Structure to design on (97 residues):
C-alpha cells in the first residue's frame, strides 16, 4: 500500500494525466481500488471472473448495483470532495451502523 505522496508520484498528477490525454496519449492501468480507478481514469472496464460487466465513465459503470453484483458488498457512493469523481465506501451488508 502506497502512502498519499507516493501514490501521486506513481500514478501522476491528475492534471498531468488530463494534459497527456489532450495530447492524444493513452495510459492503461490495472487498478483494484475503485476509488483510485474513479479518481484517475477517464474510462473504466469492470470485470467479474474475466467477464466484462461494463465499460465507460466510472460514475456510469461503478454503481451500487454493479458493485453489489460483482463484489458481493454494499456500496455507499458520494462525490469526492476535491475532484470530480465518485467516492465509495463499502460494507458487507446487513444493518448500517
Amino acid at each position: 500500500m502506497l502512502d498519499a505522496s507516493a501514490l501521486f508520484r506513481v500514478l501522476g498528477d491528475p492534471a498531468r494525466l488530463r494534459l497527456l490525454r489532450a495530447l492524444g496519449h493513452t495510459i492503461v492501468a490495472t487498478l483494484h481500488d475503485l476509488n483510485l480507478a474513479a479518481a484517475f481514469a477517464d474510462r473504466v472496464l469492470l470485470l467479474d471472473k474475466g467477464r466484462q460487466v461494463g465499460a465507460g465513465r466510472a460514475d456510469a459503470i461503478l454503481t451500487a448495483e454493479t458493485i453489489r453484483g460483482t463484489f458481493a458488498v454494499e456500496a455507499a457512493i458520494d462525490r469526492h470532495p476535491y475532484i470530480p469523481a465518485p467516492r465509495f465506501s463499502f460494507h458487507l451488508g446487513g444493518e448500517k451502523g
